[in-house]
Amino acid sequence: MSKSMKIARHELLQDIEVHISLICKEFNLADDVCEQIGTSIADFIADNYGGQVISFPKNFKWRTDSRTMQIYKKFNGTNIRELAKEFGITESGIRKAINRARKNLETKVKA
């Protein structure tokens, strides 16, 4: 393994540890608890995903994409009003989600 790969791996786990610790501090947890949580999660990732090659998309928006795909999967061509009620958004929002999902799927097919 190259030296630059070792450095990148170390930086990733260190960034995860530090970021999680900072988030915990925003919830007013004790500093030592925040550090322990950050370290524990970084260790978990290293232990459970070490050796794997994982690529993270730069524009990752999990919640939005997840809901968009749920809407798309439930869409039958005529149930926009029902989906708007179910997901608590406007009919226009449902149409936009369906169009986003279609565009995302087209992009994946072309790749």
TrEMBL record:
Residues in Mor transcription activator domain copies: 9-106
Keywords (A to Z) from UniProt: DNA-binding
Superkingdom in the source lineage: Bacteria
Database matches in Pfam families: Mor
Keyword DNA-binding set for record: yes
Gene3D superfamilies in alphabetical order: Homeodomain-like
Keyword Transit peptide found: no
SUPFAM superfamilies in UniProt: Homeodomain-like
Gene Ontology molecular function terms on file: DNA binding
Name assigned to this protein: DNA-binding protein
